[in-house]
Structures are given as structure tokens and as C-alpha cells.
Amino acid sequence: MVWRQLVRGLRALTDRSGADRDVADEVQDYLEHAAAAHRAQGLAPDEALRAARMELGNITGVREQVGSYGWENVLTTVMADVRYAARRLRLAPGFTAVTVLTLALGLGATTAIFSAVNPILFASLPYPDAGRIAAILESRSDGGRNGGTFGMYHEFAERAHSFVALAALKEWQPTLIGVDQAERLDGQRVSASFFRVLGVSPSFGRDFQPSDDRLNGPDVAILSDRLWRRRFAADRAILGQQITLDGDRYTVIGVMPRDFENVLTPSAELWAPLQYDLSDGRAWGHHLRTIGHLRSGVTVAQASQEIQSIGRAVLQEQRPQTYDPNAQFLVASLHRELTRAVQPALLAILGAVMLVLVIACVNVANLLLARGVQRRAEFALRAALGAGQGRLVRQLLTESLLLAAVGGVVGMAVAGLGVRALVALSPPGLPRADAIHVDAVVFAFALGITTLIGLALGVIPALQAANSDPHQDLQHGSRRAVGGHRRTRGALVVAEVGLALVLLVSSGLLLRSLNRLFAVDIGFDASHLLTMQVQTSSHRFDDDSAALRFFSQALQAVRQVPGVTAAALTSQLPLSRDDDEYGAAFEAGPTQPAGDYDVFRYGVSPGYLETMGIPLRRGRLLDERDGPAAPLVVLISESLARSRFPAADPIGQRLRLGPTGPYTIVGVVGDVRQMSLALSQPDAVYTTQSQWPFAERAMSLVIRTPGDAAALAPAVRRAVWSVDKDQAVVRIATMGNLLAASAAERRFALTLFTVFALVALVLAAAGIYGVLAGSVAERTREIGVRAALGASRRDILALVMRQGMTLTGLGMVAGLAGAVAATQGIVAMLFGVTRPDPVTYLGVIALLGTVAAFACSVPAWRAAQVDPASTLRAE
Amino acid sequence: MDGPSTDVIQGTLDLLILKTLSLEPMHGYGIARRIEQISRGVFKVNPGSLLTALQRLERAGWLDTEWRQTANARRARYYALTRTGRRQLESETADWTRRVTAVARLLKAEG
User: Do B59 and A33 touch (CB under 8 A)?
Assistant: First the structure.
């Protein structure tokens, strides 16, 4: 009969007086019946009435007892508490505003960060059976990771039993020729099982079949929902129609669901079968990614073991030249693999924002304590008037919960803004950045944390109230304080200062790392350098010489552009995420055996090293003579020269690159940072592209200008298009942009840490100020007495300053111990500095000390102004 | 009237009210009186507890209420057993009998 409960309760709520009258009438009726019964036994009317009253007891008590039955009464009391709390808070607008804002900042920042971290680290991948999707990985003996090869994928798919399905994929950037304009798209070439491994299928049309994915199979494509809406007007008739990609006609066989999220390449908008040629030498090139769907009951560790033994066996049987003989094979959860790189940074940021939240709460707790002292008389009065201890505690809890709730609401607005800022700031490598938004999980998180804080904050003044003696408080009023709470408030300030120091040290270390990073010698001159990629697409370039001709004509055209002092082409561009590695096999010399090295290979046009400003150390650079007919020559980086030829002259030595060569070394050049500023992988070789047997379909242009590099871009692009207007020019960026992007992740972390540390610093300063100001106000009389007894203003100033700086000093000591432990969390993001970096620690201590001294000086100055005569009179 | 009157045993008030109302609809005082009479004064009903229990049983759907005008132009609230109330009475009676029998048997065994 929940229904009746609800209806009766609601009726009582909406018509309180009616409900009260009902109870009163019933009790009255009872009384009269009782009186009548007594009269019937022969008592006089007034005697009978008295006897009836005796029987009932306290009539008001009975009414209250009967009237207080029902859930609505609990609600009514709570509402009354809330109304009262709201009135109290309105009466102290300054306190309320500061508290709500502090809480809102802490809660908002925490919620925003949680909303970013949750989909990336904690939520499972957006697939039905996400926990069983695994990545298959290869690691070299030097610990680095290799891309997968089709040959190995093929063997795994044939032999492994741990997986329901395996899939291989690679990035693909086809140019879509449409009715209006050509557009370069991001896509993936995938094996037929790709979508089955992820556990998704097209929303309409069909999935790939094994018959699609064979050499010379049909050219078919599956579109993303986004591409289908953007380019094909969401027309279902697209199925079976043909679209033109890179000059080939592909039949559209399906469209993926709207909510399909491709975590492997978020930007991919279409898919086509891999259609690999196993007999081709490229089948053993490391440029694929392999994923698999684990059979149920098989653990990652078991699958890893099986894959390792198969991989090792294949290396034994086939000895593919492209493999490091000590290569290892392993399986990892796809989720863990995707987030491996960003996890330390995200956890550190989450930890930092939690510290900010704690500091905010400590600050609010301090404010509440100070307020509790002022309100002693009020509570003493209420206790004297009969309010129970429990009732007072409930009132305090209601007040703090109300504060937390208002703070939470404002905090959600802060979080909304914060999330937008986070997405705008987020580094390009962040996985699942599209999934960052405030959703139900985030809301529940914020709600939970707000309630917790509300309860925690309520407990402090409640304890304080519970321990107080109303008798004494009534006598003293609120003007003279009792000493006990001062120690608590002091401890809270010490905690605040300590936590702020931890955050400041962390951001200081990150700042120093970023400075060190930008001071790294990248090996070339990055200023006034414009870069872009030119891609060929069309069957006209199936002939390698046609591609070479196009690139060389385009280069000539670019060199004619006014403002261009030098220009060159390269197959891969430093700091652009290009990663083209080859095995370099040196021939055995008179003093040393043959040796293999993993090197970056740059296929360049003559003039590349001059344009980039990479210094020549020995021998000569590449020039126009090193054409297809000339002897094969190569330049090597100085690190490679040093490690291979520690004593001998490398000039004239020979090496092979993968299946090509041998090349004769004609020069040694400076080292270059290829993958990132932080990563030193200096072994590299340079050949002319015209001596390289495989034509590149995309080459990067580097252009040196004395002026503004970015401003030159339109003219350079026009020059390329003057040769062939159908070719895509993409990834236009100055080298300065690429440098910044290379450090984007660290900069992201640094920005957040700096914001948090500054907020912490301000809150800590506010805490110190609040405690000292409160203490000075409470000790006015004592200070007056001191002054009257002969203490100078300077003495009093020193007295208060000493009190504040002692707290600060204690906080710093605690903070230093905390920082030593906490900076372990950011060790992965440090570069060029060690955790106990003295510069950082000294700087932070100086900064914190200055700010704290400033915060102390205001109340100290106020104390020094105390007029002894007036204070003593006031007592 | 043998022995002193006691308060109603905890938890049996509901059963007594339901039983009393199974005879005819009654107002609060009538119920109290009837319980005292039938128990021959063994049980004395506290008015506050009784009226609160009536509210609870009404909300539980076992009783229906009706306001009637009394002779001296006052309102009196009458309670009547509903069909679910009657079922509740049966099951509580059965439960009570079972317990009493068990306790009686235990006491006898001890003697």
C-alpha cells in the first residue's frame, strides 16, 4: 500500500492545518467519550472530565505523537532545517560567497579532470566485448617497439588458437575525387576480420568478407557515418555505387553506425580491404598494426605465451631479414596499450587536482571553524532553550551539505567550462579525446564527492559544538575565544601550505623539464623553415619515374617562388611523427665483423641537408651527380659513424639498407631528433631519392626563407599546383609548429599543473591570512595589554609575523617530505632534471615564503595599529 | 478482574485492534474500551499509541476511516476493517496461535 502512504503523506504536506485539525478532533473526541464513560459511572461532569484527562495524559503530547507519524514529517523537519540554514548563510554573504567559490573551484576542476580521465583510463573501450580485444606487439632487443608485418600476422592467423579472430590494419590516406572538389581523407586498410574483432558491424550494407581481402580482390569500401552524411547527403542509395579514390573506382558496400568510435585511428572515415601480396618483399616490412579478439577463457598472459612461441618459431623457420633475430612477441589489452603513453601524465594530473580539492576543503573547513567560534553563543542559547545535541549537529550538517550543494552546482558550471578548455588544450596524441564530456558518470562522481565533502565539513563544527559547554559559552558570549580550536586551525593551515608546496614543486619540475626540452640541440635550424607534404594520387604515377619527375618539377617550381632561399624534398620529416626505419647492414671490414643497426632512412633531394642546416662532419654532401646511373652513395649520422667505426674512417665503407644496396659512405653529418625532442635515436642514413629503388607516393617539402615561414605557404602551394593541380598538399606547418607539437603533451601537463599550483598558492595564502586575522581579532585585548605594558609596534608586528611564519615553516617542512614522495608520480614526464632538483626546491620555497609573508603582513600590521587605551576600555 | 492491568505486549496492539474491528466499525475510544473489557482489564491501552497505530494501519491499507457527526455536532472518526485487513488478521492470528502453542509447550516441558 505504498500508494496510500504516498497520497496521505502528500495530503498532509499540502494541507498541514487540515491534518492537524483531524488529529486534534480525534483526540478531543476520545476525551469526550472517556468523560462520558466516567459520567456514566456516576462522576460529576467536571470530575469526569478531569478523570478523562488523567487517562489521556498530556493532551498536546498525544496530539504531537499522533501527528508526527508519517514520512512527510521527516521531510518537513529537513525542509525546515534547510530553510533555516539558507537564512543563516544569507545573513553572512561574504562567508557564503568565499566558501561557495572555493568549493566550486575545487569541485569544478576535479570534475573536469575526471571527465577527461574517465573515458580514457577507467571506462572500457566503446565495444560490446571490449575486455577481450587485445593488441599484438613486437619489441626489438633494444626495447623499442616495431610495427607488425603482414608475414607474421599471416602466420599468427594460421597457427594461433587463443583468438576468435585476428586483424591487421594500416593507415591509408586516399584522395576522394568527387563532383565538386578532391579531398584527402583519413582511412584504414584493414583485413576482412577487422570489424569482427572489434565486435561491430555496419548499420546497413555488409561487412568485409574473406573474399574481399585477397590480392587483386574487388575494390570495395565501407564508409563512416560522418563521411556518408558529409559527402553523400546521408543517401542510403550509396550502397552499390562507386566512388573514386586515388583514381580507382571503389564500390561502397556498407556504412558504419553513427556511434561507432574507432579508437585505433579516431580520424579514419573509410575502410578498404588490405589485399596484401604475400610474395612481395613488403610482406615483411614493419608497418602494420595487429589486433585480436581473445577466445573466452583465454587470458592475455596465455595468448602472449602462444604468440611468442609462434613468433620465435617463424623467425627460426623463415629468417626474414627485416627482423631483429632477438625480436619478442607479446599480447596486451588494447585498452592498456592505447593508454600506456598517456597514463602517467593523466594520473599525475588527476592526483594534482585532487590535491587542489583537498586544499579547497581545508580552506572551507577553516572558515567553518572560524564561524563556529563566532556562533558559540547562538548554539549555547539554542541548547539552553531545549534543542538536543543531535538536533544541533543535524542543523550543522544541513548547513554544510547546503554549502557543498551550492558549491557543487556552481562547480558543475566551472566543470563545463573546464572540459571545453581541456579539449581545446589537449595534445594531439590523446586517445578518445572525442569521448570527453560531462555525462551521467561524471555527474554521479561530482554528486558523490560533493556529498562526501558536505558531510566531512559538517562533522568539524559539529564536533566543536558537541564538545562545548553551553553554560560557559553563554556566560562568555562570543567575544573571548577558547584556545583549543586555534591549534586545529593552525594544523589545517600547515596542511594547506604543505600541499601547495607539493603542487608548486611538481609544476616547477615540469617547467624546468620543458625549458630543458626546448634547449635540446635538434640538429638542424628550425627557424624560418616551412614544411608540407605533397602526395601523388592517380594511376599516372604508377610508373615510378613519373612520380620522380613530378616531385622534381614541383621542387623546381617551389624554388622559383619569391622569398624562397632554399627548398628540398625528403621522404620523412623530423618531428612530424614520420617513422621510416630500416635495417642497415654494414659489410665486414678488415678489423670488424658485419653489423646490423636500426636506422632512420631519409630519401632526399640534393640540397636537403643544406636547406635544413644539418652540419657536414666529414666527406661530402649529396648533389645532382648522385643520380640513378651514378654509383650508389649514402651519408650516415655521426653517432652511427662513432658506434660502427670508433677508430676507422667511415668514408668509403659500404652498407646495405634492407634489400637495397650496397651503398658507399661518402659523408658523415650531424645527428637529428626524429621522433621527438625527448627521444635521442640518432642513427640515420641519407640517400638520394633518385637512387632509391622504390618511389615514394608522398614526399615532404622543406623550404627556407629569410622572412615569415607561415606567410609563404599559399605561394608554395600554388607553385606545386602549377605543375599538377590534382595533387594533395597537406600537413602544412612551420618547423616551429612541429617543435611545439612534439612537446604538446608535456606542455598540457605543465599548463594544468601551473593552474593548480597557482590556485593552491592563493588558497594557502588565504588560509594563512584567515587564521592570523581571526587570531588577531580574538587577541585584541591581549595585544592591547602587551602594548600598555610597553611592547612597541615593532614587537607586536614581529609577534604576529612569527606566528604566521612558524605555521608556514612547519607547512613547508611537511610539504618537502610530501613532495619528495609525490614527485614520483611525474617522473615519467621529467626531462633533463632530477626529482631532487635544488633550483626548483629553492625557487618554490622562496616563492611560497614571499607569498606567505605578504599574507601575514596585513593582519600583523593591523595588530600593530591596536590602540591599547580603547581596547582596554572596551572590555 | 484478576491481577493488575499491564500495557499491551509489544507488537500485539495491531492484532488486538484488527480483531476488535472485525466485529464492527468503531472509533478510537471504543476500541480502547473494548480491548480492556474483553481482556478483563489485563491490557490497558495508551491513547497516544492507539491513535498512532490506527494511522499506521490505515496507511497500510488494513483499515478504512470515515468521519461521522456526533450528537453534539462534533466529528468522530470511525475505523472499519478492509478486505486486506481481514486477511492480515487471519495471518497474524495464525502466527500468534503458533507462537503461543510453542511457548506453552516449552513451559510445560520444563515443568
Answer: no
